[in-house]
Design goal:
This protein is of the alpha+beta class. The chain has 2 domains: about 160 residues, no CATH class; about 110 residues, Cyclophilin (Beta Barrel), CATH 2.40.100.10. About 20% of the residues lie in helices and about 35% in strands. The strands form 4 sheets. A 7-stranded antiparallel β-sheet has the order 7-6-9-4-1-12-11, with no helix packed on it. Strands 14-21-18-19-16-15-22 form a 7-stranded mixed beta barrel. It has a 6-stranded antiparallel β-sheet with strand order 2-3-10-5-8-13, with helices on one face. The longest helix has about 35 residues. The protein starts with a strand and ends with a helix.
């Protein structure tokens, strides 16, 4: 009834989709850095989209299954293998007791999210080390039972979420930043002038960029640590991720909206970022369009699963 973390990789954690207050010592559920991917992985295996998943950053870990189950993973383009059989992101797979899941280098992106049918739970810290076990909750629905039956005699189905369906995640390096009324226009002019390069990520804390220098200026008192917040540090922008401090003395010049945070969460060193300033009304309109796009992905998955189930019964 568990997954065994044979190798923990660079950073492997059990994580909720959104920030969650859980009063357990040593557990920090500050939400997935890329919220879209865990929702897609959960949808593929028949879970509620908000179920916790295993977030693996940089170099993913190696996982062994202790009983048959159904899983999917989404996020960066990490090819993987079950024992010696190749597997791919955004597809449904069946594993047996003792099967070992591992991953290769990514061609795009820097983190993946693993969902298991029926859900997962951590008994101790959600930061997973080599040798740790993650409990399979086995909270199965009728849909889970049908998917298990559908997959009982095969490793995989012949479909998945195609790369072209997710081009919005990968093909644009432009990121909206919602302007603050107290920030000089000259700062935004400099910000938009040239592209920036990701130097490194402080694990889930912030992205450090290099590029056009920005003029700093005084803001009154400490600033809140905002997810997606763009701050000036040593005349260079940094972008706050999920584990950023709740308060900071850095200058806050604007915020990247939630609809661009999933692709930001897949940026790795050497990636490019181009900023485009927007006002709050434009951001709200874009957010609605993004909501419709995500729902279309969910409906496509529902259709594919239902079609597969019908085919199985014929």
């Amino acid at each position: 009834m568990s997954l065994i973390i044979k190798k923990s990789g660079l950073l492997t954690i059990l994580q909720t989709v959104k920030k969650t207050e859980i009063n357990k010592e040593n557990n920090e559920y500050n939400g997935a850095v890329d919220r879209l991917s865990p929702m897609l992985a959960n949808k593929l295996v028949g879970n509620d989209i908000d179920e916790p998943t295993i977030e693996m950053s940089g170099q993913p870990g190696v996982i062994q299954f202790t009983e048959p189950t159904i899983f999917a993973y989404s996020g960066g383009e990490f090819e993987g293998s079950i024992n010696d059989e190749d597997i791919h992101p955004n597809r449904i797979y069946h594993v047996d007791r003792g099967d070992v899941l591992s991953f290769h280098e990514s061609s795009r992106g820097c983190r993946i999210y693993l969902a298991v049918a029926g859900g997962l739970a951590a008994e101790a810290s959600n930061v997973l080390k080599s040798g740790d076990e993650v409990i399979m909750r086995r909270d199965y629905s009728t849909l889970h039972d049908e998917i298990f039956h559908m997959m009982s005699n095969k490793r995989k189905v012949g479909w998945g979420i195609a790369v072209y369906s997710l081009v919005e995640v990968y093909l644009s390096d432009t990121y909206h930043i919602v302007k603050r009324p107290d920030v000089p226009d000259s700062v935004y002019e400099m910000l938009e002038e040239k592209e920036y390069e990701v130097i490194h990520e402080d694990n889930r804390v912030n992205l450090v960029l290099k590029g056009q220098g920005l003029e700093d200026f005084d803001q009154t008192g400490e600033q809140p640590g905002v997810l997606g917040g763009v701050y000036i540090k040593n005349e260079t922008p940094i972008i706050a991720l999920n584990d950023f401090n709740s308060q900071t003395d850095l200058t806050h010049i604007g915020t990247i909206p939630s609809y661009h945070m999933h692709k930001l969460g897949q940026k790795r060193p050497g990636s490019k970022i181009k900023f485009k300033t927007v006002d709050i009304d434009d951001a709200h309109a874009e957010m609605y369009g993004h909501h419709l796009w995500v729902n279309s992905l969910f409906k496509a998955i529902d259709y594919k699963i239902s079609k597969e189930l019908v085919k199985e019964k014929m």
